[in-house]
Structure formats: C-alpha cells, structure tokens
C-alpha cells in the first residue's frame, strides 16, 4: 500500500453548505480509506502528461470501472486537446482547493488511462475567483475562448451569479458542488447531485421520520446551531426550520460566528436547548463542527446528533485522533451526504476515486492531499462530462442535450438523476441522500446507496 499523508480539508465537505472556515494544514499523518495569490485570469493549464507508465499506479479494477463509466478506450490520449473551462474559488477565505484536486486527478486519469475524449487529451482552461466581481470576469474569459464549449465549476460562494448570468444560453455550466441560491435556481447550469438543499432537507426528513425508530424514542423537539453567514442563515430559515416544523417538530435555532471556538459554541448549544432536545442538528463548517464536538463533550450533552458531511472530513478525523477517541468520528453521530462515503468500501465508483486520487497525488509528488470535501464530487462531475463527450456531445448544444437525457447512475451519488425535475431548484438533477453513522470504532451504513435505502426528501416532501 502506498504511504498516504493527508492534510486538513479547506472549507467544507461533500455536499457544500455554509460559508467557509479558514484553511488549515495539520501536517499530521492519516491513513487513506480501505480502498486504495488569487487571480480571476483564465490561464490554460498544461494538459497532464499522457505517457502512461509501464506499470500502472492505478488498480485494474479502477481502470475497468472508469472505462465502463466514461466509454473511453484503454491507454493514453494524444493529439490536439479538448478544452474544458474550469472555475473555482481559491486564494482567499473561504477557499476550496480540494475541488481542484478532484478536477485535476480526474483529468489525469482520463488522459493517461481512459484514452481522453475520443483519443484526445483534456486541457483545463482555469479561472479562479475570490470576490463577487471575479465571476463576471471569468464568464467573459470563457466566452472569449472559442475552444471552450462547456464550463465546470468546483465550489464557489462568491461570483456565482455573475458567472452564471454571463454564460447563460451561451455556454452550459456543470456545477460540481452547488452551494448558493443563484446556482440552485439556474436554468442553464446543471448539477448531478441533490446539492446542499437536498442534504439539508434530507437531514430534516431523516430526523423527523426515521430517527425515532432507529433510536427508540419519540422525536418532538429539535435544536439547531448554524453558521452566522448568508448561506448558513438560508440553510436554517429556508431549508431546515420550515421542513422540521411541517413534519411536526418544535425547532429552536441559534446562529454562531464562523470563527467561534468551543466556548462560543457551548453558549450557542445551550441557547438552542440542545440539552433537552430530542435531536441536535449542527449546520456548520468542518472547523465549527470540531468546536461543536468539543463543546458537547464539555457540557456532557448526550442528545442524538444529526449533521452533514461537512463534519466527516479529514479535519474532524484528525481531531478525534488527537483527543484519543477510538473512532474516526464522534461516536453515535449520524451524517448525511450524497449516498456513499470516503470511509466505506463497497461502491465501485467510490473505491475507484479513492484509488485514483492517491495515485495522481503520488505521481505529482503531493504528500499533503486534501481528498475529501469538494474533491470527490468535482472528480465525479468530470467523469460524467467525459461520458457525455465520448458519446458525441462535444459542443454546447450537445452537452445540454446529453445532460437533459441523463438518468444516471451518477458517479459516487445514490439514486436516479433527472435534470429539470426539481420544481424548486431546477439546476439540481439529483434527489437522494444517504445516512451513515459512527458506531464505536466503525463507520457504518444506515440508509444510503450501499443498502439501497437512500432517502429522497423531494419525494417525501411532495416537492417533485
């Protein structure tokens, strides 16, 4: 097994939800899963080397799975590149460089081992944003490049509205990790996930409709702590509180600063009434989630916790190790995500991602790899774009047609896909979320893609 050193994920985990925390590098050792200065200019990245090594660093099972999914041809790509636009938020706070790890590792795998796109290598045309106005500049640069037919995003909190407005009806946008209202409501941008609306609503549906039976108690009262920023406020006021109340729960929510430590978290948790609630739902970033865990331990609160995948990333795992816990995550906590997990083997696509991203990192000499968070969904998005292009969709019109016809399965996401079927959030093509739980030293499947029991909150709430 390759030696794998992993650093803290910057910002958020799988589903993207709230405004980000500061990037942090722990420099600590961590095992991989069981399966193996800002600029808004749009530089063209050099296509990764397409000279496949004589001894592949990627497992044959990974190659078989990826070839079947993308419709590629085994071997390295060559010739003139296929250009794909790529926009991500990096360089400031928040920043999501792990999304670019997902993009670049996918392109590396596609170019070196899956025959590229019809034999030609992908080359990324990159643009990075840190502030709102950068989105317009990135849109202009993508429009000015006639070689770019489709634009993929990593993860953005800033600049999504001007980016999407600028490209609408001109070049389609594939959203790797939709996190903002302009993305959710976009009509010429598409995401092959339920996005943060699906995850947050899924938390509420799970807490109200399923948790009581699993825990052997009646769920009547919910406490919520959420980050005090626009995204966190929307997550609570528009997606959590109304759903929980419609399902019969009493809800108390308390905002907390993005920079809050465990002391401030303890105050917020007490103000929300988590000690007397039947369920506690933290809607916070991964760094805030660490503060939540520490505060709960200090307060000796044993209320059942249901949270998002923001809390199961490498930072939390590293913290658990530092405080001497036996499990990678807090014991008894439930986590809601896209249906599969970096920590559970058994899904061929998830296993292939875990193998490929570490193989890419080793080839690139990257020791401190951020591979959780937004990395996986961005990787998955590029795999699906490759599938479309290998099927003949190489221009904007073709991409749009392929997207609208796509019924899944989506790489590393549970449930069916149908773009345009979500009446509330038209860009979101996915519906289902998965639930997993930390039980002692084990991270286990509860209701997810592994057991075929993923929850579809859109259907359960009658929003389809």
From TrEMBL:
InterPro entries from the UniProt entry: BCAA_transport, Peripla_BP_I
Record's signal peptide: none
Positions of the UniProt region annotated as Disordered: 24-59
Ranges of Low complexity composition bias in the record: 28-50
Protein name: Unannotated protein
Lineage: unclassified sequences, metagenomes, ecological metagenomes
